[in-house]
Amino acid sequence: MSKNYFQVVRAGINTTFQDSGRKNLYHVGIPFSGAMDKRNYLLSNKLVDNEIDSPVLEFAYQGPLLRYYGNRINIAITGDVNFIIKKNNRIINGNCYQSINLEDGDEVDILSTNKSVYGYLAIGGKIDLKYQWSSCSTNTKAVIGANDGKKFENEQQINISKLNKNLAEKKLDYINTKIENIRIIQGTNFDYFSDKGRKIFLEKEFIVSKLTDRMGMRLEGPRIENVVDTNIKSEGLIKGVIQVPADGNPIIMLSDHGTIGGYPKIGVVISADYDKLVQLTPGSRIKFKQVDLSSAETLFRLYDLETQNLISQI
Question: Are 288 and 65 in contact (CB under 8 A)?
């Protein structure tokens, strides 16, 4: 048994291990997976002085309740998250984007995300995990990755094989923001849709349905008319691509998406907006805005520059 470990008292709704994901496996049907909100994932690791691509706990809506046993350790939680720390029968309201020291017997109770979906808990040290294809990211649909490819269960144990020595408090002044529109570039089958259908896609609002998870996000709204063919020969898919099946309601492929699909693709969410997209809760309203490829590349460079600037502030 590990000397330092967390006991999972309550697993939460959908808690998994995630890191930066798997690369170059699309040809064998394996998507990238990895943390849904990349910026918050990176910031959580930096706050506890981990290597920036270390595995973390990703949770959705309600997170886990964890009890710690061992030597002093630091953790950090990022996202828009409500949580408390329990120390010797004292309850302390937790602050996101701030490292927190835990002692033997302390508990961290992640109550909920706040008008968002995903949050991240980084542990200051090396978690004892099994890697698969150079990543520990858990894809529960494919049963791949750490924790035997499964989400957390009550009473399981998270073993820490090495603690970080630097326990100095770190803090970042950061607020998660929302954007008015989700920006897209044209998909490869954009011309399959009528002028009216394309206009609806780019001008009308869509609602995030309850049929949304790490694999994809189904939207509800006015029907997008297809005038060529509602099915195509299966082609490769990428994260962020927007397919439109015969019912005319878009489906956005997310981090654990299937790697091929036979629905026409009307657009692709730009990488700079992906973090904001995945944090939209069911019932949220989406409007799309088209940009060209050059603008999408510029926007991503700006997003990456801002992320690196935030990391450098910690």
Answer: no
Pairwise CA distance, residues 176 & 192, whole Å: 36
- Cβ pair 275, 37 in contact under 8 A: yes
Identify the DSSP state of 144: B
CB 56 within 8 A of CB 45: yes
Q: Do 214 and 255 contact (CB within 8 A), yes or no? A: yes
Q: How far apart are CA 146 and CA 6, in angstroms?
A: 16
Structure token digits, residue 114:
């706040």
CA distance 129 to 133: 13
| Domain parsing of the chain, residue ranges | 4-163, 182-312
In total, the chain counts a number of residues equal to 314
> In this structure, are residues 262 and 233 in contact, taking their beta carbons and an 8 Å threshold?
yes
Rounded to the nearest 5°, which phi and psi values hold at 18? Answer: -140, 150
Average pLDDT of the chain, as a whole number = 96
Q: Partners of 217 in the beta sheet?
A: 212, 252
The answer as to CATH 3.40.190.10 being correct for domain 182-312 is no
Q: Model confidence over 14-56: pLDDT tens digits?
A: 999 999 999 999 999 999 999 999 999 999 999 999 999 999 9
Residues 6+ positions from 212 with CB-CB distance below 8 Å: 218, 282
Report yes or no on whether pTM surpasses 0.85: yes
* Token reading at 75: 């953790």
CB-based contacts of 300: which residues, under 8 Å, 6+ apart?
270, 271, 272
